[in-house]
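Title: Comparing notes on inverse folding

I've been comparing how different people in this forum approach sequence design from structure. To keep things fair, I'm posting one structure and asking everyone to reply with a full sequence. Here's the target:
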């Protein structure tokens, strides 16, 4: 029988906003300008990770003397300029799903590897911040994804049991984090398709957030 879902916790980049692709473009652009080799393993491997783990991964690939802070700051500034010029790219179905969850009485949280300051900026810009009861940034936990800390804290602050909570994620690191915390991971793939290992961890896979809404609407009467 289906478990009763009490809450839904969202990742942000790649789930609510099409920002993973934006940063990928900026990394490529800056690498080319600086005459650096573009190492896809470093860039793709950091998806879903916090800033500390991203720096560690880049230095593993480029060497300990790699000027990560300068590189990352330049990429971030380029991304900010792109957003200022063209708007924050929102993923399909964000408002529809959030509105549905609110109407049905589900509690909503966000658990992003991005800093809380960055998260609040994006949510305010998109005018969706009021949907979220709890907002946890990557700088608010000791260990980032794929460790379970951020999802455990989100559930703790919501006052809900992880086993009755959905996690909406796009990345393997995020799925691993949610599963390790005991949540029910729903993957909406963005840049990385689920591997056989990741597929085994999923409660469900949906192509868009509209599909998540449809799935929940169909299952609503089955929940205990």
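Reply #1:
Here's my take.
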């Amino acid at each position: 029988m289906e478990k009763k879902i009490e809450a839904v916790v969202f990742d942000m980049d790649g789930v609510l906003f099409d920002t993973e692709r934006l940063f990928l473009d900026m990394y490529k652009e800056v690498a080319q300008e600086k005459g650096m080799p573009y190492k896809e393993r470093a860039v793709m491997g950091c998806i879903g990770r916090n800033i500390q783990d991203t720096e560690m991964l880049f230095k593993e690939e480029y060497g300990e003397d790699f000027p990560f802070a300068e590189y990352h700051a330049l990429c971030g500034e380029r991304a900010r300029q792109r957003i200022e010029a063209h708007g924050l790219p929102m993923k399909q179905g964000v408002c529809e799903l959030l509105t549905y969850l609110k109407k049905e009485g589900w509690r909503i949280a966000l658990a992003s590897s991005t800093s809380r300051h960055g998260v609040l900026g994006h949510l305010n810009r998109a005018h969706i911040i009021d949907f979220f009861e709890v907002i946890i940034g990557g700088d608010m936990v000791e260990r980032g994804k794929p460790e379970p800390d951020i999802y455990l804290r989100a559930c703790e602050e919501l006052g809900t049991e992880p086993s009755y909570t959905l996690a909406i994620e796009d990345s393997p690191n995020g799925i691993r984090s949610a599963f390790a915390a005991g949540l029910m991971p729903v993957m909406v793939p963005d840049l990385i398709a689920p591997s056989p290992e990741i597929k085994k961890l999923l409660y469900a896979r949906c192509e868009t957030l509209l599909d998540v809404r449809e799935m929940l609407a169909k299952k609503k009467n089955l929940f205990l």
